[in-house]
């Protein structure tokens, strides 16, 4: 930043947003990068990161559920985020300057590239089946059919002597019913209506992810950010990479490239 700007004191507020189609876990990744950027900025001034409210994401498909302008506190502990860097909710930022807001529009937009102990919850196999139509269309060769996925799951259950498989998927109810018929051993986390209104689809996804992170064995979907984050959580928790970095192959693939093992350097 320019020295004349940072010498004025502050505080200064860093606002950002993410492309609307992007999913929950990619937005979490962007936050981590923005937090790293803010740490650098704070060497030269009093900077605060303003958290963009959550809107309805493509994967959040629960009907008749209000899921716009959701504060981060609905999903994350703000006090824990503030241990690392100073953050504030967007509505707090707006409240300091205006009476209220309906819409906020930017006069200009620039895209910025910012790079920057284990326990098994229960003896079960966990898999992530991404079934959103646009994902399947874009990755037809990498994603198995339901029958193909079930064949692989049964093989893994037999190999690891497991009786239960937990499935995290964004498939619609029709697809889930088909899957249940093919795989009666499957279980899912299904929130009651009251819990869904409290947690929203984002909170349910976090619960799914945490269950996946503690499975005896995990297998995910190609290029799925949801699967990537589970790899990360399991790596932090100390699970064997052989039970973590796995993905389904397409029906026409006898073998396929498995996810890269990214070691965390402390």
UniProtKB/TrEMBL annotation:
<dbReference type="GO" id="GO:0005783">
    <property type="term" value="C:endoplasmic reticulum"/>
</dbReference>
<dbReference type="InterPro" id="IPR045130">
    <property type="entry name" value="OFUT2-like"/>
</dbReference>
<dbReference type="GO" id="GO:0006004">
    <property type="term" value="P:fucose metabolic process"/>
</dbReference>
<keyword id="KW-0294">Fucose metabolism</keyword>
<comment type="similarity">
    <text>Belongs to the glycosyltransferase 68 family.</text>
</comment>
<dbReference type="InterPro" id="IPR019378">
    <property type="entry name" value="GDP-Fuc_O-FucTrfase"/>
</dbReference>
<dbReference type="GO" id="GO:0046922">
    <property type="term" value="F:peptide-O-fucosyltransferase activity"/>
</dbReference>
<keyword id="KW-0119">Carbohydrate metabolism</keyword>
<keyword id="KW-0328">Glycosyltransferase</keyword>
<keyword id="KW-0256">Endoplasmic reticulum</keyword>
<protein>
    <recommendedName>
        <fullName>GDP-fucose protein O-fucosyltransferase 2</fullName>
        <ecNumber>2.4.1.221</ecNumber>
    </recommendedName>
</protein>
<dbReference type="Pfam" id="PF10250">
    <property type="entry name" value="O-FucT"/>
</dbReference>
<keyword id="KW-0808">Transferase</keyword>
<comment type="pathway">
    <text>Protein modification; protein glycosylation.</text>
</comment>
